[in-house]
């Protein structure tokens, strides 16, 4: 499946991860059909300015719940990168409407569209949250790999809707592949940091901004798995191009607790107030996840410090780290305290 000249579709193209996927694909000579919900300059301007975009990027307006619009974007494509899923920065008021519908029905729509267009392979972006949350039948201290699934019913019982949506949609995507013969592979990224191409701050970058600026919300001393957005894009292209890639792929190389991450940020950026040590609430650390399966097909990643430096520089340039200690209240996205 290697090689430029092919046409591929990227869903949610204007988002944080998808924008880097579009950039990488265009740089490798692919023609890209990018779907966005809104054709505004905020969602598409940064894509149109990418190298090779003028000739090789077509933008389609498509909501995940609109099968016909999605199918129109996938026609003529050999591959699909299904990236779009809501990643809300605020609490949900209607989980079915705001999360489960777009994530689950949306994924099914994309897969059906891919089948009708005779697509060769679909790379579906799942998440670490489908791997690491209270997995059933997984020994406590055992390193988590692709056989490990988060406990969907536990997540539902605590109304943690983002993980519920990611678990169900990844299960459904893999099952759809098995039932229909469509070649579906999934990727499970950890917490994604890195420079942003889009002009607005996405939910996971708010994590880093909050740690540096400080604010009123307590955070859990979770064992985080961090990965650079550029390395996620590389992994996704590899998963598309390497024929033997199959099933799930954890993409979560840097393991660090919230407390250790805070110490690292304080040592790198002593001029920022950072969150208070006391606002980090203790919790048990389960065994980490391994990204070995991805590494075995040739994936490598940059060091965590480089990712942090590049993220902070990007935020500084865009003014997202202004108003430290000022009137603008900085909040920790609730979703990130639920996982
Ligand atoms: N960031 C992370 O740490 C991380 C980690 C693991 C997995 N992921 C997964 O990676 C993917 C991208 O996340 P991201 O961090 O790049 O977040 P993001 O920037 O918020 O991107 C999400 C994208 O999904 C689109 N979208 C949401 N609802 C939609 C709908 N109903 N119809 C069509 N498009 C819709 C958004 O479009 P609008 O801009 O119009 O809202 C946006 O383009 C998601 O599947 C997420 O679950 C992210």
TrEMBL record:
Transmembrane segments: none annotated. CDD domains: FR_SDR_e (cd08958). Residues 8-246 form the NAD-dependent epimerase/dehydratase domain. Keywords: Oxidoreductase. One of its GO terms (molecular function) is oxidoreductase activity, acting on the CH-OH group of donors, NAD or NADP as acceptor. The keyword rRNA-binding does not apply. This is Dihydroflavonol-4-reductase. It comes from Zea mays (Maize). The gene is LOC100284190.
């Amino acid at each position: 499946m290697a090689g430029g000249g092919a046409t591929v579709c990227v869903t949610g193209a204007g988002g944080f991860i998808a924008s880097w996927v579009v950039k990488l694909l265009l740089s490798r000579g692919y023609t890209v059909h990018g779907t966005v919900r809104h054709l505004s300059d905020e969602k598409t301007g940064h894509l149109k300015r990418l190298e090779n975009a003028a000739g090789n990027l077509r933008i389609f307006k498509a909501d995940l719940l609109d099968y016909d619009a999605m199918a129109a974007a996938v026609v003529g494509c050999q591959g699909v990168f299904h990236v779009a899923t809501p990643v809300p920065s605020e609490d949900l008021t209607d989980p079915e409407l705001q999360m489960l519908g777009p994530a689950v029905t949306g994924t099914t729509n994309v897969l059906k569209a891919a089948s009708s267009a005779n697509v060769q392979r679909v790379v579906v972006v799942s998440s670490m949250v489908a791997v690491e949350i209270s997995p059933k039948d997984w020994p406590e201290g055992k390193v988590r790999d692709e056989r490990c699934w988060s406990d969907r019913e536990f997540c539902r019982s605590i109304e943690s809707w983002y993980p519920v949506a990611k678990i169900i949609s990844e299960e459904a995507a893999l099952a759809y592949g098995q039932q229909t013969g469509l070649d579906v592979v999934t990727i499970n990224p950890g917490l994604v940091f890195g420079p942003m191409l889009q002009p607005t701050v996405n939910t996971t970058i708010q994590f880093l901004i909050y740690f540096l600026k400080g604010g009123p919300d307590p955070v859990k001393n979770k064992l985080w798995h961090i990965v650079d957005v550029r390395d996620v894009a590389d992994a996704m292209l590899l998963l598309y191009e390497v024929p033997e890639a199959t099933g799930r792929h954890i993409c979560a190389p840097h393991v660090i607790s919230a407390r250790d991450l805070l110490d690292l940020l304080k040592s790198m950026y002593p001029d920022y107030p950072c969150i208070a040590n006391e606002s980090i609430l203790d919790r048990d650390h389960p065994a980490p996840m391994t990204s070995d399966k991805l590494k075995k097909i040739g994936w490598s990643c940059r060091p965590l410090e480089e990712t942090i430096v590049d993220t902070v520089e990007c935020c500084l340039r865009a003014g997202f780290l202004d108003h430290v200690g000022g009137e603008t209240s900085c909040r920790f996205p609730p979703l990130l305290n639920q996982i």
